[in-house]
Amino acid sequence: MRRVAPVVWIPGMGYETGAPTSVCGNMEPEHKGVTPQTNASPYTIAVSNSTFQTGKPITVVIGGSNYKGVLLQARSASSKEALGTWGTTPANTKYLQCSGIAQGAITHSNSNTKNNLTVFTWNPPSTTNSIYFVATIAKDANVYWLNVKSEMLTRGENYFTKQKVLMNLISKCIVIHWQKHRNKTPVQHNKGFTLH
């Protein structure tokens, strides 16, 4: 007699092999009959730095008790689009294409246990100056939390700060040039023109 392997559901994220791309935007469950928890999430999203720079990865860890399902993205405060790319996926996880980015999100690849030893790496883009991480986290097949967020991260000194310094320098150069030009303008006195 042929045995058939059971199909396991992880709520909000499709089958046990991970979230489908259809939930990239709202990160909400598609499994009918199961609703998200309304109490405060026991999970937190910890990051390695409160600032980011293009070319310098950020380490991300989900703290709390063990979990089985996850959908994790980086976003800006003004959009639901996934930002940046994720580095090498930890065991029991995989990439999910979101917002047209092949490595735009991370999801579970099976229902094996994940914990705070499951470390994710995110690579910042060059197109935004602030982001946060957001996740849907499933403890098991019937218990999960939506909209678990990290602190807001802001861009560090790599691009925007350098641009600001450059603009300040240009402004100072313009002022100095203007002052020198002004000092060479002829000024009329009673006895003719003199140069200052």
Radius of gyration: 26 Å
Number of helices: 1
Provide the CATH superfamily of the largest domain. Reeler domain
Shape: elongated
What is the count of structural domains?
2
> End-to-end span in angstroms?
105 Å
- For the report, how would you describe the main beta sheet? 7 strands, mixed
Give the amount of beta strand, in percent.
25-35%
Low-confidence stretches: 1-14, 192-196
Mean pLDDT level: 83
Summarize the structure.
This protein is mainly beta. It folds into two domains: 21-155, Reeler domain (Immunoglobulin-like); 160-194.
Describe the structure.
This protein is mainly β and 196 residues long. The protein has two domains: 21-155, Immunoglobulin-like, CATH 2.60.40.4060; 160-194. 12% of the residues lie in helices and 33% in strands. It contains one helix and 13 strands; from the N terminus they run E-E-E-E-E-E-E-E-E-E-E-H-E-E. The strands form three sheets. Strands 2, 4, 6, 7, 9, 10 and 11 form a seven-stranded mixed sheet that branches. It has a four-stranded antiparallel sheet with strand order 1-3-8-5, with no helix packed on it. Strands 12-13 form a two-stranded antiparallel sheet. It is elongated and about 80 Å long. It starts with 43 loop residues before the first strand and ends with a strand.
